[in-house]
Description:
Elements: E1 2-6, H1 10-21, E2 25-30, H2 41-44, E3 48-51, H3 58-67, E4 71-74, H4 80-91, E5 98-100, H5 106-122, E6 129-136, H6 146-158, E7 164-172, E8 177-178, E9 187-194, E10 201-207, E11 212-218, H7 223-236, E12 242-243, H8 245-248
Parallel strand pairs: 1-2, 1-3, 3-4, 4-5, 5-12, 6-9, 7-9
Antiparallel strand pairs: 6-10, 7-8, 10-11
Helix pairs in contact: 1-7, 5-6
Amino acid sequence: MKIALIGYGKMGHMIEQIAVERGHEIVCKIDVDNQDAFDSPEFASADVAIEFTNPTAAYGNYLKAFKHNVKVVSGSTGWMKDHKADVEALTKDGKQTLFWASNFSIGVAIFSAVNRYLAKIMNQFPQYDVEMVETHHVHKLDAPSGTAITLAEEIVNDLDRKADWKKGTTTWDDGRIDGSDEHKPDELLVKSIRHDEVPGIHSITYDSEADKITITHDAHSRKGFALGAVLAAEYTLTHTGLLTTSDLFKF
Length: 251
């Protein structure tokens, strides 16, 4: 498979390494300093482009790829609030193809399935309140993380006593605290911590007077995310439309 990389930072380098190890060819690498490469023959020859950039650039990158009918796998978060409807329209009936996930880790896909199952169980036990804490490196621009939002939406979907999720405080290494933890009883509080070079930790806690239940996913490195992105590209090669990890991992 011919792969183009959009975003050539730490994730881009790791994806390149894993893709080559799995027998794929990297035909184009695009970063901030060579945006004209979107219109190159090399980019147009790609079967799939893997995109890891930032919330402000992601949607524009999709449009540039779709212009050349290149399928996209993207792990960029923070763009959906403004552009979800546009992307759904562009990918309707398989006209263009985007495989988007807030997290490509196989472990997170398993964790997500456990999260949904636990929420269904806990729906029967209203004495437990639930909240979430996510921790990432200090360079991460958005809070809460896209993964935390996805997990929170899953809980809200299966827990009748929560109508929505609420962004809580973001705590930084320098002691700064942004935001507030004030929330309504029917809101799921999602707190954020920005610490050192942490790849990603997500903890969901159900707490009652009697006891506490916590499930946690703790990423050791970005390698799991990179492998998942390449697996998603392999899946996207033979599928069309708007795709996500629930299509790739059937559990």
